[in-house]
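Session log. Operator J.P. requested a structure for one protein chain; no other inputs attached. Running the standard single-chain path with token output.
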Amino acid sequence: MATTDRRHHHLSMLVIRPVPERGQADAAWWPQSRMLCDELPKLVAMWPHDIGQIERVLFSPPDWDDRPQVVEAAGRWIRSSSLPHDDTRLMTVMLSDHSRRHIDVIPPGASRDFARHTFNDVTGIYRALKTKVAASTDPVDWGDERGYA
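Structure written below.
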């Protein structure tokens, strides 16, 4: 009987600081896979409209198996390109108000403890946002509304 590695069965999760802090990640995101063309629409769907609409994404090529120039998300096209430096685990989103938010990308295969630690670095007193799209029928239970148990 085959066993399943539970680390790969989780909800795509996103936590955001409502007020950016210089030198700190503005958000942390745990995508389900390394396919940006599949994951970017989920990120756009989770992103709160009151912060601003995602217009463009700069990503670190080593984090992704694909490198699309545009991705369809929420009925529109989001431009994407690589960061000038391979800043692994970093993504920058440019918003409709011309601001930028820096996202700490948690590798899809990361352990729950690693993800929880990364989310805790961002959350503190901040709000957490979770997608309702499950990767499997046996997702990780994150517990409370802050996004961690």
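Operator note: The chain has one domain: 9-133.
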